[in-house]
Amino acid sequence: MPAFCDVALPVPLDRTFTYSLPHAVPTVGARVLVPFRNEKMAGMVMRVHDDPPPVEAKPVLAILDEEPLLSAQLTALAEWIAQYYIAPIGEVMRSMLPLMAEVKKQVLYRITEQGREALYEGAEQGSSRRSRRTPEEQDAEYKALNYLEHGEPVKAATLRSATGVTRELIDGMLRKKWIARETSAEQRDARRLVRYAVLIPDTRLPKLNENQQSILAELAGAGGELPVVELKRLEVPASTLATLVKRELVRIEERAADFHLSALAGMHRTGFTLNDAQQAALDTITAAVETNEFRPHLLHGVTGSGKTAVYLAAMQKALDHGKSAILLVPEIGLTPAMAAQLHHAFGSEVALLHSALTPEERSEQWHRIRKGDARVVVGTRSAVFAPVENLGLIIVDEEHDSSYKQESTPRYHARDTAVMRAKLANATVVLGSATPSLESWHNATQGRYARIEMHERVNRRPLPKVELVDMRQEFQETGQEHLFSRALIERTQATLERGEQAIILLNRRGYSFVVMCRSCGEKLQCENCSISLTYHKPVTSEDGHAQVGQRLECHYCGYKRTVPQRCPKCESEHLYYLGAGSQQGEERLQELFPGARIGRMDRDTVRGRSDMERLLMRLHSGEINLLVGTQMIAKGHDIHGVTMVGVVGCDHALGLPDFRAAERVFQLLTQVSGRAGRGDLPGTVLVQTYHTDHYAVQCAAKHDFHAFVEREMKYRRWMHYPPYAVLANLIIQSPHLEEAAGWSSTLGRWFQSTQLDGVRVLGPATAPLSRVKRIYRFHLVLKAEKRQQLARALRMALAHADAKGIPRRNLVVDVDAVSLM
Questions:
Q1: Residues 448 and 470 both lie in one domain
Q2: Is residue 271 part of a domain?
Q3: Pair 25, 1: CB distance under 8 Å
Q4: Residue, of 415 and 37, whose pLDDT is higher
């Protein structure tokens, strides 16, 4: 029997850890519970063997799975991600297994030797050691140490309630090393269960009181059973149901909770009739699926060309051949509509995976997929890891979208990961977009991807006419700075009067995105991040009660504060609100169009999938005829009543320090324009811009993707940016400015003194966002001609950092970085 196993743990270290096997032997790919420092962690077994480590191995505490959770293909994919993105294998495994709900963790505290000394010293002297704390705080510390003196670890909540010690005092005792923090982990049942009250039939009824009779009558009227939670509306004591159970008139059953894919079910058509272009695209994809051929396909179809119908038909073909299919969408907000269409087409075969599900729901959906109960999976980027068997097809919708790039470790790109997974499974992968990323377009041009073109909208509907409104000229003619131009107001009014729907894109959240003092010029910034706070105005409900008060908020760390009456720096009362967000846009539109039925779609109004479902139902039903929102409104929504789209303030991104700025503006303008004219009536688009001559704006107005690509590719080739080079962003971060600056200088000097063939290094420099969540950030940008050269340089840099004592957790390696902020 093997004596040891290597375990991948979710920690920022590029290695596995060896543990001894005291009893049973786990299988490779199963989870085990192991001790790690002062914690107990669940990790993945990568290898079992008889090779003793150089130090004494700690024992495995428990084996959580009897069989491997990941197939050999998914394990190989995890190892590829770890190598390609230079990410710790344990953190890759954690991303692939959404099973947090199955391991229960608790934080515990125990007394240390220093704590015992402080306790005994305090008992002898009648007080704790000298401290700046008040006598009450010292007394609470003494009580806490006395409570922990027996030696057993205690939960934080228990310690606070038993001794009166506060969180701040606990943190202070940790810093003084009087107590130590531990974590405990154990397996738990993560099934979502609902308790049902079931009427026992053919039972002779004894004498009952009024409350008991009301429960029995309610159950009888509902067919003999109801969820216990629904009986609460009867407003009878909880003991009444318990009495009925004891008298054997009612029994309690626990059943698996239902999972509703989408409230939009019934709003989407099935049985599409494909046109010639759609049929040709389907035939190409189907041929690859039938022959188990791996070859990526880039499906380039204009907005409204019917790509979704091709996706559904291709997935049906995959299922007909006994295979499974995965559909990736970029935003959680798109999953309800897509899930509704898939549910219509494939019924209970559909599973949903994304981060907005509860941990219990994600675990439940994951196990359904693994057991083969669901052969069609729809979700955001993490759904690329769905444990489907016999994978035949992966579709990446809106493949250009930056949301597919994970912004925390492991920083994988779901589009490229989907291509690799398809390669490992000999499956077909389809990357679909009206505005493909330049990387995918270049791969298709070079013959690595097969390109499928769909040049026309379904039913030969025309693409919307796009008009540019020069806001410089608007200011000269009106003498004032207006959020909405005269042309936009006139077109919107005419659209509403015709009984049609309109959309206004205003790609900023909140009311105003800068608050500044007019006297001293001070900007109100987040105390955790180097960014201005966004002003949010109070939101008032229809009954006149405020739902959310006014506040200043950071959209990076979530920090909130009240709006000051005076400038914090100079005490001036003259605070000035600059810039307009979607909340201010909604308010202005209500003033301009008092009779309109206005809705808003942004992160403040759409916080979960149920919010998005309600909003989309109101749009489809016509309850909302004017929608304002951020870029969430630009992605994939198919609302046939929309005939006019207005674009406000989206060209500010052209001034950002990002080589992809022009590509992003072109994509956003093209995508939001595509929301107009998808029904029987033609659409129009008005774009307000200060950069009417910029090629990204001009090409978007003409729907000319090829002209934009030709111009942008020249710039990329000249500057050695992707797709003509590979790129990585190496971020050095620390809560201490001097430490982060010192580490970045150490790495910068090493790069300058080391010969790295084919690699160019820019920096070190302060990151554009120099401080996020109280962490100071510096970065180096690496560009190379070949990926092997880039990976070698990064691994050498990490080895040098380790030799110089720079902790791995303070270094972020972002390979194929989408954002350099």
A1: no
A2: no
A3: yes
A4: 415
| Eight-class DSSP state of 465 | E
440 plus 522 within the same structural domain? no
Spatial distance between the Cα atoms of 183 and 352, rounded to a whole number of angstroms: 31
Q: H-helix or E-strand containing 217?
A: helix 210-221
Same domain assignment for residues 527 and 626: no
Whether residue 410 is preceded by a cis peptide bond, meaning omega within 30 degrees of 0, is yes
Determine what percent of the chain falls in helix, strand and coil, rounding each to the nearest 5. 40, 25, 40
Same domain? For 289 and 415 the reply is yes
Q: Are 323 and 356 in a shared domain? A: yes
**What sign does the CA torsion over 359, 362, 365, 369 have?**
negative
Q: Which two tokens stand for residue 54?
A: 């150089």
> Contact at 8 Å (CB) between 108 and 183?
yes
Name the one residue in this structure whose structure tokens are 């990736």: 328
Strand residues in 154-296 grouped as ranges (E): 154-155, 179-187, 193-199, 225-227, 250-256
Of 289, 466, 498, nearest to 394 by C-alpha is: 289
Residue 268 lies in a domain: no
**How far is it, in rounded angstroms, from Cα 365 to Cα 380?**
14
264 falls within a domain: no
- The range of the structural domain enclosing residue 179 comes to 106-187
How many independent structural domains does the chain possess?
7
The reported pLDDT for the residue numbered 131 is 52
| 289 and 181 in a common domain | no
What local confidence, expressed as pLDDT, does residue 241 receive?
Answer: 85
Residue 100 has pLDDT above 70, yes or no: no
Closest to 174 measured CA to CA, from 186, 185, 162, 159: 159
Question: Does some domain include residue 266?
Answer: no
Q: Which of 545, 579, 613 is the last residue of a domain?
A: 579
> Is 299 found in the same domain as 339?
yes
Show Cβ contacts of residue 415 under 8 Å, excluding neighbours closer than 6 positions. 328, 396, 399, 404, 431, 437, 440
DSSP state of 498: T
Provide the residue type at 85 as one letter.
Answer: Y
Q: How far apart are CA 645 and CA 675, in angstroms?
A: 7
Per-residue tokens: 812: 């972020």
Which band of pLDDT confidence, cut at 50, 70 and 90, is reported for residue 229?
A: confident
Q: Compute the radius of gyration of the chain from its Cα atoms.
A: 30
470 contacts 689 by C-beta, under 8 angstroms: yes
Query: Could you tell me how far CA 593 lies from the centroid of its own chain?
Result: 35
159 and 67, same structural domain?
Answer: no
Query: Which three-class secondary structure state does DSSP give residue 222?
Result: coil
